[in-house]
Amino acid sequence: MENKIIHRADSRGNADLGWLKSKHTFSFANYYNPDRMNFGALRVLNDDTVSGGRGFGDHPHDNMEIISIPLEGDLVHKDSMGNEAVIKAGEIQVMSAGTGIYHSEYNKNQGESVKFLQIWLYPNQRNVKPRYDQIKINTTERNKFHQILSPNADDAGVWIYQNAWFHIGTFDGGSSTSYQLKDKNNGVYAFVLTGEVNINGENLGERDGMGIWNVESLDVKATKDARVLLMEVPMLG
Amino acid sequence: MKKTAILAVCNHEGILATILRLLAGNEQWEPVGAADLTQATDLLSERHFDIVLLGSGMDEQDNEVLKKQVPHVPVIEHYGGGSGLLFGEIYQALGRSSG
């Protein structure tokens, strides 16, 4: 039987450090809600806005798959593997923290905010060699989902150490499409970036999220122009 | 009030130092570090810990050894490293509503 859990945008945890404003779908840092720990392997979904020129100083991670999706502005990334890059809207960045990685992230521009999603997934194996990748994602064709992440290095998008697939799409109001799960034992966490959609009978607005599992496919109808991120992940235990 | 004793096991020296510093930021917590499985098992045989954080370099087999030694102590396998340390995992493992 199909199961769903809906997290409305205004129910998310809130962090305001002045230079950083973040909405946490799941418990993170000082936001703790025992009912909001994760959706399967999806542990963190942070909706971050960083002021001009500010950012996160050098800090470590281990044993986590970390994905950043910029929505507006430019983010400067530096890490202990020698990578130094700017990521911007239309790109996706992935780090497998594995045995340990240090990195920093800063807003490249002084005069404008950068907005991005920070997403953490539990890895399916521990202590892998740390790795970093970033690619442009081609999502120009509207009214369909584009794969931007998978478990497979030779597949579309970036890859991670987890049986997970991410898709993103921009939809015209009135359009509809479907999404077939890659693995029917997985669940999907849908996050509405903009606009309004109806997914399997549930109306979702901007920054609403819905986890759905025990399904083989999703019916997605854009009730207004919309942009949607689907994160298919193992449900674990 | 008795502090919550947390054993962080991590063979990455820099990350372990960061984790211990972050944990020490909570006055109710008493963090102790172990650089490898041997140090961890020694510490667990010497004194009580309320929770174990399994960090870089520690694998499933190490986890099984720890669980066998102290089956009543929750082991957190993933907490993400030293940024935004996921305190929620600790609160949850301790069965508390907050810190």
Overview of the structural elements:
- The complex is a heterodimer of chains A (237) and B (99).
- By secondary structure, chain A is mainly β.
- Chain A folds into two domains: 12-136, Sandwich (Jelly Rolls), CATH 2.60.120.10; 146-234, Jelly Rolls, CATH 2.60.120.10.
- Chain A contains no helices and 22 strands.
- A seven-stranded mixed beta sheet of chain A has the order 1-20-17-22-15-13-14, with no helix packed on it. Chain A has a seven-stranded antiparallel beta sheet with strand order 2-3-4-11-6-9-12, with no helix packed on it.
- In chain A, a hairpin with a 4-residue loop joins strand 7 and strand 8.
- Chain B is α/β, with parallel strands linked by helices.
- Chain B has one domain: 3-Layer(aba) Sandwich (Rossmann fold), CATH 3.40.50.
- In chain B, 40% of the residues lie in helices and 18% in strands.
- In chain B, strands 2-1-3-4 form a four-stranded parallel beta sheet, with helices on both faces.
- In chain B, helix 2 packs parallel to helix 3 (60-69).
- The model of chain B has no long low-confidence stretch (mean pLDDT 90).
- Chains A and B meet through strand 5 of A and helix 1 and helix 4 of B.
